[in-house]
Amino acid sequence: MDLRFSEEDEAFRAEVRAWLADNLTGEFADARGLGGPGREHEAFPLRLAWERRLGEAGWTCLGWPREHGGPGASLARQVIFHEEYVRADAPVRVGHIGEGLIGPTLIDLGTEEQKDRFLPPILRGEELWCQGYSEPDAGSDLAGVRTRARLDGDEWVIDGQKVWTSLAHEADWCFVLARTDPATTRHAGLSYLLVPMRQPGVEIRPIVQITGTSEFNEVFFDGARTPRENVVGAVGDGWRVAMATLAYERGASTLGQQLGFRREFDRIAAIARENGAIGDPVLRDRLVRSWIELEIMRLNALRTMTSLGDGEPGPEVSFAKLYWSTWHREFGELAMDVLGIDGLLAEGPPYDLSFAQRVFLFSRADTIYAGSSEIQRNIIAERTLGLPRSRGKGSS
Questions:
Q1: Predicted pLDDT at 395
Q2: pLDDT, the chain, mean
Q3: Distances (CA, A) of 1 to 301, 313, 314
Q4: Where are any strands of DSSP class E within the chain?
Q5: Average pLDDT in the 6-23 region?
Q6: What is the C-alpha separation between 275 and 255, in angstroms, rounded?
Q7: 238-273 confidence digits (pLDDT tens)
Q8: What is the distance between the alpha carbons of residues 224 and 138, in angstroms, rounded to a whole number?
Q9: pLDDT digits (tens, 9 = 90+) for 42-52
Q10: What is the spatial distance between Cα 387 and Cα 336, in angstroms, rounded to a whole number?
């Protein structure tokens, strides 16, 4: 594992750093540090304008091939960009679902017409996407989706319900996993549809979280429509396409996420020094242990990136989500213990939470979204360790 960057890569780092310093000024100076889990409501129009500024300057979709509008940046340069982006305290991106999930899916599995229609607006930051996977009875057990789609002339008609749909209230489009063959069950008979959100037949209901914010939503499809050609892959082959999309979630941006974790850690450590909690040997030991685990997380991510660069990801990929989500949940508990009794009081009425309180409350969801810990353990047991398949509901 070679963790060194070349001179050319370091020159690229300087270019990224300089551009961010020059552009996070003026109207975008106030965007620094905004957004993120539990805070996606913050200055969304300003962050959308920033997304478009990134697109104009060619800083979106770095890993996309040149023939599809991206710069075709190496994995090392993608890592560098995400690192410097977080170090600059730039606002959390609003176009990550389009750039990181549906875009690569269309590049690999979409038709030329789909690529021509949908990729350029993602590159420019002009169209936002959300993911229509989970349902009330089909979360971790995704193959149990009940949303249905039927052909009516040249259009698909969609009926059903999705839940935990991040940023659905801001999205222009949704990629929806729906059952198009009513005679099938489980993985068969599913199709992957691209559905416009701003139309009759689509109702979005925000879900108020324990943080008091509403970045997740319920989405109800009642006769919603999309053109017949807006199916990715073959009709009935939606499970394969959906799994391909999920594979793109574990990319270079994870290192940026971990630098965000490091920034959170530094803030909590500073609070511990200010309020004297650092003097408690038990809390000090927990802080040290948390820092060590964060370093392990980063090194493992770099090792994963190295293996991906060779085209052969190792078994460590299976552990990454389980590791970081468990670490972050425990870190949220540590943050509250550092605050002590002050952590029981809101910053102000009616429910103004502090930084540490938001970290604690939202981190409770980390072990559920993007693959619950229970399912992740099944995947590790069955696919990495070769243990017998679980017979329980939701088995991978």
A1: 47
A2: 90
A3: 11, 13, 12
A4: 129-132, 148-152, 155-162, 173-179, 190-196, 202-207, 216-227, 231-232
A5: 97
A6: 30
A7: 999 998 888 776 655 566 678 788 889 999 999 999
A8: 20
A9: 999 999 999 99
A10: 38
Ranges in the chain annotated CATH 2.40.110.10:
129-236
Rounded mean pLDDT, 128-157? 91
Tell me how far apart the alpha carbons of residues 206 and 214 are, in angstroms, rounded to a whole number.
Answer: 6
Give the separation between CA 8 and CA 213, rounded to whole angstroms. Answer: 43
Check whether domain 253-384 has CATH 1.20.140.10, yes or no: yes
3-state SS string over 277-301?
A: HHHCHHHHHHHHHHHHHHHHHHHHH
Q: Among 27, 22, 170, 162, which residue's Cα sits nearest to residue 93?
A: 170
Whether cis (ω within 30° of 0) applies to the bond prior to 388 is: no
pLDDT, residue 299, reads 83
Please say if 249 is a catalytic residue.
yes
Report domain 129-236's class.
mainly beta
**8 Å CB contact between 215 and 166:** yes
CATH number of 7-94: 1.10.540.10
In angstroms, the CA 196 to CA 214 distance is 21
Catalytic residue among 126, 249, 333, 382: 249
Q: Please give the structure tokens belonging to residue 317.
A: 């990929």
Percent of the chain that is helix, strand, coil (3-state, to 5): 50, 15, 35
Distances (CA, A) of 246 to 63, 105, 144, 261: 16, 9, 17, 22
